[in-house]
Amino acid sequence: MTTPAAELPVVVIGAGPIGLAAAAHLIERGLDPLVLEAGPAAGSAVRQWSHVRLFSTWGEVVDPAAEKLLAPTGWVRPDAATYPTGGDWADQYLQPLADALGDKVRYNTTVTGVAKAGRDRVVDSGRDEQPFTVHVRPADGGEERISARAVIDASGTWTTPNPLGGDGLPAIGEESASDRISYRVPDLRDPAVRARYAGRRTAVLGSGASAFTALAALAELAEQEPGTHAVWILRRGIGAGTFGGGEADQLPARGALGLAAKAAVEAGHATAVTGFRATAIEHDSDRLVLIADDGHRTDPIDEVVVLTGFRPDLSFLSEVRLGLDERLQAPLALAPLIDPNVHSCGTVYPHGVHELSHPERGIYLVGMKSYGRAPTFLAMTGYEQTRSVAAALAGDREAAERVELVLPETGVCGGSGLFDQPEYAASSSGGCCAAPATLQIGIGAPTSGGC
Predict the structure, then answer these.
(1) CA-CA distance, 383 to 65, in Å (whole number)?
(2) Which of 7, 33, 297, 345 could pair with 23 in a Cys bridge, judged by C-beta atoms 3.0 to 4.6 Å apart?
(3) Could you give the CA distance from residue 99 to residue 66 in angstroms, rounded to a whole number?
(4) Sign of the CA dihedral 190, 192, 196, 199?
(5) b/e map of 409-434 (b: 16 or more CB within 10 Å)?
């Protein structure tokens, strides 16, 4: 006998902060969630950057519906004004929340496909009346299908970092040099990791918060270990917004990250190489050399840390009908609000079910996954997304379309596309970005007439 769709669970993919928040909001709305987590614990991806401190406070990373669910368990929120690390977030909030959800969370369960029951993506007939079927692979290697009334994909993008290559594809030689390349912020508290970078030249690629964090950490290591130096590889020039919002950022810790990166460069612990789009990496004896698309080469380096963002894994969604922007791989209505070609402001218009809807009714990408390849996602944004989606699934359209979030500003309103324009770079900081250049800010930096 077929189970009526209304009696089926809403499958939530991922037991990270946004997935668990989605479950809490669904329960608050009287709906039954089933959270499928590929890892062995709540926040498995967050735990992989447990050493990194968030730039949002505890007060900004706890979802209101989740806190209500936790209250009967005796859980007490940490000091709202303090900043947790990823490990703190996972241990002190995400795992207790998952524990409160009980058997509504299944671990070691990898989603391998999502479809409409009995319908591939081509078939129109009867499609909207069919439930979703979610194919999963448990830890024992078997296979299972789960029927769902709706699917909320909160799996994030952590498992699919962008490659070193400036064209979005792996650079020539990237795979053969993989033992010297990391795509994560190194945990220099770990003795083995510390030994890997101590006394060596490390190239750091990226211009966001992760790159700032890595540069600051390597600068601190350089003060303790002679010979340690970072080479900061930037695809654009040095501009007014290169180091983020600084003191103008309404998230002070986020602004402080950029200031720490700037201090690392000014102190001589990091050298900036601008206008460099990597296309290849070669071995030079026992060291590496990065090569740009215009033939420029770096001096020999020992290690490479690639922090150029992430992209969504859409492979298991191939049989559902998604409406995605062709550039960002984000929902069509959301993409213009977050497009880094236009802006890099943290102020994204608060959004919900309207911007997250697809041609296939009942499936939503939320959290970091909803941003596709765009950066600057905040947990608060994901919590608002899940509140709106849960309201819509419960039939409360008024609540789903109501805005209940005001986001803090970064103080930076230029986008990567703007920064790539020579006239923008020249007017913002006097820096030249028509050709790659190596400089140490504050130490022999070119004047505005240097172009």
Answers:
(1) 9
(2) 33
(3) 12
(4) positive
(5) ebbbebbbebbbeeebbbebbbbbbe
For residue 259, give every residue at least 6 positions away whose Cβ sits within 8 Å of its Cβ, in sequence order, or none.
Answer: 243, 244, 246, 247
- Pair of tokens at residue 152: 């909320």
d(CA 254, CA 83) in angstroms, rounded, equals 11
In the block, residue with structure tokens 């969504």:
312
Tell which residue, 38, 301, 17, 308, has the closest CA to residue 154. Answer: 17
| Residue in the block written with tokens 């004004």 | 81
- What is the separation of C-alpha 416 from the centre of its chain, rounded to a whole number of angstroms? 17
For residues 393 and 391, give the distance between their C-alpha atoms in angstroms, rounded to a whole number.
6
Distance CA 221, CA 235 (A): 25
From CA 404, how far away is CA 391, in angstroms rounded?
A: 12
Considering only CA atoms, give the Rg of the chain: 23
Q: Give the span between the Cα atoms of 162 and 168, in whole angstroms.
A: 7
Burial label for 172, CB within 10 Å (0-12, 13-18, 19+), is middle
Give residue 309's identity as a one-letter amino acid code: G
Residues 338 and 328: their CA atoms lie apart, in Å, by: 9
- 26-39 burial string, b = 16+ CB within 10 Å, else e? bbbbebebbbbbbb
d(CA 89, CA 280): 38
Per residue in 308-365, pLDDT tens?
999 999 999 999 999 999 999 999 999 998 888 775 545 567 789 999 999 999 999 9
Spatial CA neighbour of 22 closest among 385, 314, 356: 385
Alpha-carbon distance of 245 to 376, in angstroms, equals: 12
| Token couple for 272 | 């900036």
Nearest CA to 15 among 367, 380, 371, 387?
A: 367
Predicted confidence at residue 409, as pLDDT, reads 52
CA distance 365 to 22: 11
Count CB-CB contacts under 10 A for residue 260: 17
pLDDT at 450 over 70: no
Q: Rounded CA gap, 341 and 11, in Å?
A: 34
Collapsed DSSP state (helix, strand, coil) of residue 280: strand
CA dihedral of residues 184, 17, 313, 182 (deg, nearest 10) = 0
Distances (CA, A) of 445 to 241, 420, 449: 17, 19, 11
pTM for this structure?
0.86
